[in-house]
Amino acid sequence: MAEPYFRSLPLFPTYAIGDVGIDGLVPACRVESWEAFIEAMRSPDHNKAKGEIVYRGQAGHDWHLSSTLARLFDGGAVPADHQANLLAQFRLAMRGRGLDVSNLDEQEIWAFGQHHGLRTPLIDWTKSPYVALFFAFDEPDAEGVDNPSRAVFCLNMTAIRADESLSEIIFEPTHHENARLVNQAGLFTITPSGKDNLVSAILNELAENEVINPDDPMDVARYISKIHIPNENRVECLNTLRKMNIHHANLFPDPGGASKYCNDWLARLIEEERRDAAEAKAIEDAADRALAEPDPTPQTVEAVSAEAIAKLLRNTVRNDSEYPPEMLAGWATKLISLYERTAETDWPTRPSSELRLKLEFRKFLMSNSVNRAVAETGARRLIEFFKANWRATHAS
Questions:
Q1: Is residue 262 part of a domain?
Q2: Within-domain flag for 265
């Protein structure tokens, strides 16, 4: 099976001009994982006060930089009259519908319309690479789509603004009605009408002014570049970003954002419960198979000790990375103490006493983040272990 395209690209921070059908003329590179992307964003080039970079995350590895309006036209060039007429129509349609846009600048109107579904010549960017990473990984791939990597574009805003002819391409709205933009540390690029697309507008201008050598990917990457990120461990990536307060409820401070945040929470909870149930069933099945196997030699009752209890726990939770041996040894000592405090003298002969002791064992395990099904198995095994010892001690 052929390696995915992005594997042919050099590792960050080395760039190359790759497949034009996938990356266009934007120099591209790759990282090994989304964690590696976060680490890459700590590099000096992405943390210069005098050279601010902005970012755009895109889910599709082969999506080009294109505005929603440009996508309607072959080649991406928006006819000037279509663009002007669309803006005029939106001004009229907004009468009596909330915000009065009649006195706003043209770009402010485009920005307001962009976040309410209007097709515009604007492309969203953010000053946070981590917000860009969120938008790159936010949505799952459509079924059947081959998408081996996701992407984050990088644009050197300071360098672009330094060029007089390109300075108008960057637009940061100032109107207070755009709370989403504030929370996303957002801004826009606007492609001049009649131009093929944003990338060609930038590269043509820089090349004509002999600022860059368009055939040198490292030279071009000082202004615009693309980083491919393996399309793996999407949920883990979003979970990490959530801990950084990057999630729908914060990036979209409106009822829609709150709803998406809650829906994502429920989906994660259901998936975790399914995974826990599957793990617990696998443990139960393994235990049942072990019990069904005949013992080659007569069994002896193992004496109560921290070592014996720790061994029982390890065979139950079966996860040394999450529950290392030293942790289980500490639990074993506490469980013996719990048994000595809770168990009545004749508890194995009284079902109610046995049940009470089993519930205490289960509660202890669950309070230490063992899922319910595994805790139930552990509590049952602890009861069997202590009952065998009690019977051996009280045998006539």
A1: no
A2: no
Reported as half-sphere exposure (CB side, CA atoms, 13 A), residue 268 has a value of: 13
Q: Where are the beta strands (DSSP E) in 19-86?
A: 28-30, 53-58
Q: Is 58 helix (H, G, I), strand (E, B) or coil?
A: strand
Same domain, 177 and 245: yes
Candidate from 40-44, 68-72, 305-309 with smallest mean pLDDT:
68-72
Helices within 138-245 (DSSP H only): 157-162, 179-183, 198-208, 217-220, 234-243
The type of residue at 3 is E
Q: Return the DSSP state at 297.
A: S
How many domains in the chain? 2
Same domain, 228 and 309: no
Contacts 24+ apart (CB under 8 A), 357-363: 357/383, 357/386, 358/382, 358/383, 361/335
Strands 224-230 and 170-171: unpaired
d(CA 276, CA 314): 17
If you compute the radius of gyration of the chain from its CA atoms, what whole number of angstroms results?
30
What is the spatial distance between Cα 273 and Cα 147, in angstroms, rounded to a whole number?
28
What pLDDT sits at residue 19? 94
In a domain, 261, yes or no: no
DSSP 8-state assignment for residue 35 = H
Report if residue 367 sits inside a domain. yes
Strand partners, 187: 125
Please list the residues that pair with 229 across neighbouring strands. Answer: 150
Q: Are 242 and 311 found together in one domain?
A: no
Can you tell me the distance from the alpha carbon of 318 to that of 133, in angstroms, rounded to the nearest whole number? Answer: 34
For residue 230, the surrounding DSSP H or E stretch is strand 224-230
Count Cβ atoms below 10 Å from residue 14 Cβ, excluding itself.
13
What is the total residue count of the chain?
A: 396
Question: Any idea what DSSP says for residue 364?
Answer: H
How many other CB atoms are found less than 10 A from the CB of residue 325?
A: 12
Here the tokens at position 327 are 């942790």
Residues spanned by the domain of 189 = 5-253
Residue 304 DSSP symbol: P
What are 255-274's pLDDT values in tens digits? 665 676 677 767 767 777 77
> Rounded to whole angstroms, how far apart are CA atoms 238 and 234?
6
Instruction: For residues 213 and 75, state if they share a domain.
Output: yes
Q: Find which of 46-50, 195-199, 326-330 is predicted with most confidence, using mean pLDDT.
A: 326-330
